Amino acid sequence: MPFRIRAEEIGRLNAHEFNEFMGRLLRSEAWRLGIPDDHVDTSCNINDPDEGIDARIRDDDNITGGPWIPPGLSVWQFKSGASLTLTEIAEEVAKPGPKAALEQGGSYRLVSSADKVAAELDKRQGAGTKADSSSGQMQT
Fold this sequence. Notes:
It contains five helices and four strands; from the N terminus they run ααβββααβα. The chain has helices spanning 7-11, 15-33, 86-93, 96-103, 118-134; strands at 40-42, 55-59, 72-79, 107-112. The chain has a four-stranded mixed β-sheet, sandwiched between helices.
């Protein structure tokens, strides 16, 4: 493996660096999958009101074949620093951007730079599922 990034390196990124890192990572993966560049929207303006969305990918042709970007519409929120509580995760999912995407049949991805063990991730995923199902959308 020629290039490896450790979790602690990602955890040290500040909000702007993590946002830029994720934007580049998503654009690279979209390019690899053949999703047109104009269907990938990312922003480095981390202080602008974004309704809970830092990136949006429109895979209108459902061509994704990879494990990272889901087919159709997906919206992404990036969070750096300390890990989010279950309440904070539910609040993120309930913001206007994620809620609208889920209502349209899209997907929502909350990406955190905090490193978590598997049991903690399972608890957090359950919080997102509960929040999604309370708005009429179930996503695991």
